[in-house]
UniProtKB/TrEMBL annotation:
UniProt-annotated location(s): Plastid, Chloroplast
Enzyme class: hydrolase
Binding sites annotated in the UniProt record for Mg(2+): D72, D74, D299
Database matches in PANTHER family: 4-NITROPHENYLPHOSPHATASE-RELATED (PTHR19288), HALOACID DEHALOGENASE-LIKE HYDROLASE DOMAIN-CONTAINING PROTEIN 2 (PTHR19288:SF46)
Superkingdom of the source species: Eukaryota
Taxonomic lineage from the root: Eukaryota, Viridiplantae, Chlorophyta, Pseudoscourfieldiophyceae, Pseudoscourfieldiales
Keywords: Acetylation, Chloroplast, Hydrolase, Magnesium, Metal-binding, Phosphoprotein, Plastid, Transit peptide
Name the UniProt record assigns to this protein: phosphoglycolate phosphatase
Major localization class: plastid
Pfam family, one: Hydrolase_like
Cofactor: Mg(2+)
Keyword Phosphoprotein: yes
The reaction(s) this protein catalyses: 2-phosphoglycolate + H2O = glycolate + phosphate
Amino acid sequence: MLAARVGGLSGGLRAGALRGGAHSFRASSSKLGSRRPPAPCAMTSSVSLSVPKLDTARKDDIVANVDVFIFDCDGVIWRGDSLIDGVPETLAMLRDAGKRLFFVTNNSTKSRAGYLKKFTSLGLDVQPEEIFSSSFAAAAYLESVGFGKEGNEYTGKKVYTIGEVGIDEELDLLNIPHIGGPEDAGKRVTLAKGEMMHQDADVGAVVVGFDREVNYYKIQYATLCIRENPGCLFIATNTDAVTHLTDAQEWAGNGSMVGAIKGSTKQEPTVVGKPSPFMLDWMCNRYNIKRDQIMMVGDRLDTDILFGKDAGLRTMLVLSGVTSEELLLSPENDIKPDCYAEQLSKMLDV
């Protein structure tokens, strides 16, 4: 059902310049269109200025001039498995005002179908085509570069995944062969004299996503594929340093998994999740959206807000996730959103 409703990916974006890896993504973001002059909720990003708090005038400006809202999920829409207060009413208000909504998450553990189930379980009416996950982005990127094909012929190339079911489900939707992932959970390396691990020579890409079952076997296998298989791609769903698996503390994020492979291969990955512009480029190309119509709403400065600012979008930070007001307003922070609020539902209150 999801595949039928979302459709194929080929109409979204041809990667072209994205082949060069993580640095080429950041470089390409300068081509996403010129920035608008600062509007009432688009203050300069100088660290010498405070970030304005959402008030009635700024909210009215946003509703009047923004046509498309992109929301991060964890910390904005929900925390763990709990819906944040006022979110349904706020989304309903924006939809009633004719706004288009998208939900973009760096969490690769679920596919879009998996996230649709989560939205539904929380009582939110969200359409499949409104959901973008970094697991989807990895599969879409591979399709955009023509992975596994020479002309109309299939080459037999496959993907090795470090990650959970979300990546594999998205690859399945595009009929991209893959190995590893959950199947390699629990595998151990026994080091006897002269022992070697042999990788599949047909692996043409390694995708690294968040993996609670990561182990030395997976790290070594991915390392061999990247180092020894000619032209093997190295793709990271994201490089977040930490994540919030529980509300009690920060946990090591996908950056730790990606870092292990970077360390052993001495290669930089192509990053497809935020703050890389890949998902935004795909969205804008697929749905003919102009960047000056969009506001990015998130709870992380180094992914959500940077994602928006690099693309020239309006940005709003909410304090219902990982970023404190103290950190936001600190002189050491040089990533400044256009405005901020305690949580998304403040758009109803002001």
